[in-house]
Design a protein that fits this description.
It holds the Pfam family Kunitz_BPTI. The protein is an alpha+beta fold and 155 residues long. Helices cover 25% and strands 18% of the residues. The strands form two sheets. A two-stranded antiparallel sheet has the order 1-2. Strands 3-4 form a two-stranded antiparallel sheet.
Length: 155
Amino acid sequence: MQLLTIFALLCLLGPTLSAHALKERCRKPVASATRTCPKGETHTLRFTYYPGTGKCGQYWHSGCYRGRNRNSFHNFTECMKECNPTSICLKTPTQHRGLIPRVTSFVFDINTLNCTEKKSFRTPDVGPQYNRFFQKDVCKNTCEPDLVEIIRSSG
């Protein structure tokens, strides 16, 4: 009887669970380039999806790697749309206008990949369906990608 109950629950919940299942492509680990290529191929900055954080980050893609890693994208937007299409980071922030902006909140700007401060006249809507946060740290941890920092020597 218990086995039949579990089977019935899985049949009912199956479509719901699979709708939120992460695509296989987005689960593949990537390896950053760690050395130069023997034939002079170049490395490029690309984005990969990290299932643990639910967002994409930058990495050095090796030009000499013969295999093709499918969890590799040209830009942040392409990566997020493929691997986390319901992310609030992809939503267009709502605009609140008023005479004297008093309430501070933060929104993720997909063009600059940064959380920016916004002022509004009334308390803005926040929550899982809005790209708006009351705390900058929450915005950054939720949306901002980890970017590769390029350090150049001056010598």
